[in-house]
Design brief:
disordered N terminus; 5-stranded antiparallel beta sheet; mainly beta; 24 strands; 2 helices
Length: 421
């Protein structure tokens, strides 16, 4: 993520990983005994499976993703205008990346990545509900007035170690973060932390994963309305994850929201049975990939209530699928559609406009950070504002953040999707 986009990435040179084969798994809902601490809203018996009929429609991209505004920094070099928030002037934050939105206590909070130097991770909020003209952000501040970084006691949050998802449960803020960066491993572990004061301080809760859920995207669901889950009622968390950074397939897990602080309550999607119904396992090693495309690192998933589809965005640097990839599904476990490109840096006016092209290749823009004239920019980190999507029962406009590496900043994007028979 932050400080994480080398020229190797921008040239699309990635190693591909392989999905892990399953071990033991259940033929119904669980693959191993129910944990000793069993929450009351998880059934200890297999739920009665119900096949969900496929909707007779598919999703097409009716408008490719386009930039709305630049969220970070004081000056939009492409448009030669000040930014809405003037983050450098107001918060001593000239540069950062990512920008993961989530709802908490009636506001939209946004988790940012490494602030370049030092590689701290800012957090902001907004009460703005109309992203069409950009978003006005308020950053949490320390006693000097500068931005206040996310800190988790006992957890390293240096370069390449960032908060990458947040959820709100019972008035408390929970943040998922990556850590354990090393020369051999970009991001080696993910953790979960809790804030009781709306992001001003955090306490470590537990390690989430060292396997398939190092980068995650979490969607809250009503278990009573989504069939074939391990829990049959109450709020639940659908946890989508990637493992080996930008060399991973996407996996799925479920956890009742009420017991988010108990890691033993997480169950992992372990494939489909003979009736094409999901199986669930208590063992992460049993987790099955949702599709075969081992290039995923940063990802974002939402459920779009207008068109009734699950929407997944992620960046991929493979030659055939370079850009921000889109997949949709009727159920969180799929089947997921083939990947489509919702934003391509060349075709959709990224390069030479708001993403820098190395001057060694083409002197087509002057939007780069100082001293980085010969360093490529690139697209990554497409994080959706699920609750700000608009539309009707045939189409929807989605909004998401995207980072550009050079200039090292975050832009607000939008795209429109349409249902067709």
């Amino acid at each position: 993520m932050s400080m994480k986009r080398t020229l190797v990435l921008l040239l699309g040179v990635f190693l591909l990983g392989c999905a892990q084969p399953p071990s033991t798994m259940s033929s119904t809902s669980t693959a191993s005994p129910v944990p000793s601490v069993t929450p009351t809203n998880i059934s200890t018996e297999a739920p009665q499976p119900t096949a969900t009929p496929l909707k007779p429609s598919r999703v097409v991209i009716s408008s490719q993703a386009e930039k709305i505004s630049q969220l970070v920094g004081d000056y939009d070099a492409e448009r030669e205008t000040p930014t809405n928030t003037l983050t450098g002037e107001r918060y001593n934050l000239p540069r950062t990346d990512l920008g993961v939105p989530f709802e908490h206590n009636g506001r939209t909070y946004i988790l940012f990545g490494d602030a370049w130097n030092p590689p701290d991770d800012p957090i902001a909020f907004t009460d703005d509900t109309n992203p069409e003209d950009g978003l006005d952000l308020t950053f949490l501040q320390n006693s000097t007035g500068a931005y206040l970084p996310v800190e988790i006691p006992g957890v390293g949050l240096g370069a390449f170690e960032v908060p990458m998802e947040g959820v709100s449960v019972a008035g408390k803020m929970y943040v998922y973060a990556t850590t354990d960066h090393s020369a051999s491993t970009m991001m080696g572990r993910s953790v979960v932390a809790r804030s009781d004061d709306d992001g001003y301080s955090f306490s470590y809760l537990y390690d989430l994963s060292t396997q398939h859920f190092i980068n995650v995207s979490v969607v809250e669901v009503d278990a009573a309305e989504l069939e074939n889950l391990p829990a049959q009622d109450g709020a639940g968390l659908m946890i989508f994850g990637s493992g080996d950074y930008r060399r991973s397939d996407v996996h799925l897990a479920f956890q009742p929201a009420a017991v988010i602080e108990a890691p033993e309550t997480i169950q992992y999607f372990a494939g489909l049975d003979a009736a094409d119904l999901p199986m669930w396992s208590m063992q992460e090693a049993d987790a099955q990939a949702l599709f075969n495309q081992p290039c995923v690192g940063e990802l974002s998933v939402s459920y779009n209530e207008f068109i009734g589809k699950w929407i997944m965005l992620y960046n991929c640097a493979s030659n055939a699928l370079r850009g921000i990839n889109l997949r949709t599904a009727d159920d969180p476990w799929g089947p997921w559609t083939d990947a489509e490109i919702i934003f391509h840096p060349w075709d959709d006016e990224g390069y030479c406009h708001f993403i820098h092209v190395s001057h060694d290749f083409d002197d087509c823009d002057n939007i780069q950070d100082a001293g980085r004239e010969n360093e490529w920019g690139g697209e990554y980190g497409p994080y959706q504002f699920e609750h700000l999507a608009v539309g009707d029962d045939t189409s929807t406009t989605i909004y998401f953040t995207m980072s550009t590496w050079n200039p090292y900043t975050v832009v607000l994007m939008k795209a429109t999707l349409q249902l067709v028979p």
